[in-house]
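Please, structure for the following, as C-alpha cells.
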Amino acid sequence: MSKDCLFCKIINKEIPSEFLYEDEFCVVFNDIKPHAPVHLLIVPKKHIRSINDLTDSDKDIISHLFMVAKKMAGEKGINQSGYKLLFNVEKGGGQVIFHLHLHLMGAWK
C-alpha cells in the first residue's frame, strides 16, 4: 500500500466507495468520471504503480483482473453486446492515478 495513493485509500475503506465486487485480490467500483454508460474500474489490492512496474510474480493478479472483468461484463449485461478493456500506462498513455487499474467500458447504443 502507498499511503498517498487514492486507490489504496479506497481499498482500505479510508475513502467511501461502493464496491460492486470484492475478493482477496481486487475490488471493482464505478468510475466517477465515466466515458461509457457502463464504466467500471477493476483494481488490484496490491499496490502496483503501472503496467511498467509488473513483475513475474504479478502474472496471477493480471489474469485475475481479466477474469473479474469477464464476470462483471456478464453481470452488467454487456457481455454479448460487447465491451472494451483498457489499461492506461504512464502519463503519456493517459494514466492519472498511479495504481494499476483495468477499465471495463460498454453499453454504448
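The domain at 6-106 is CATH 3.30.428.10 (HIT family, subunit A). The longest strand covers residues 38-44.
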